[in-house]
Amino acid sequence: MTKTQFVKRITHPDYGELYQFFELDEATRIKTLVDPFDTGLLLMAVEEEELPEILAITSKRGADASGYYAGNQFVVQKGSKFAASTSAKCPKKYVKLREKLILDGLLIPLHNQLFLLEDYEFESARAAMGTLIGGWAKGPHGWK
């Protein structure tokens, strides 16, 4: 007893083009209306989104943050805490970026730290690290 599945396209005056899904019993030639999901005619391919590896950094000066690589960018996650001040050796580009984030309302003071209100994309993990700790960053190796 074999059953063949097929689809019939119909045009409804109010709803436009619709599809009906049938199963035909070869022996009796009887058509039965079926649910396309139950029979496997429409397979819902659920793509599992690959979760990025979450990296974290902490510093003596008060930074406590997490982030991940997104292509060529490095995303620092909301809720991360930046060091409240910068060191004398902090490059000017990191100081300016911190000021921009504060002026844009993305960083707010909270208990001797700066709290990040939204995920923020940096050009690199090194730039994120330098901006977070408010100091010189030799490389992205501080993210673990």
What does this structure look like?
- The chain has 144 residues and is α+β, with helices and mostly antiparallel strands.
- It has helices at residues 36-39, 92-103, 125-133, and strands at residues 3-12, 16-25, 30-33, 55-58, 64-70, 73-76, 81-83, 107-110, 113-116, 120-122.
- α2 packs across α3 (125-133).
- The chain is rod-shaped, with a radius of gyration of 28 Å.
- The N and C termini lie far apart (60 Å).
Short description:
The chain is of the alpha+beta class and 144 residues long. The protein has helices spanning 36-39, 92-103, 125-133, and strands at residues 3-12, 16-25, 30-33, 55-58, 64-70, 73-76, 81-83, 107-110, 113-116, 120-122.
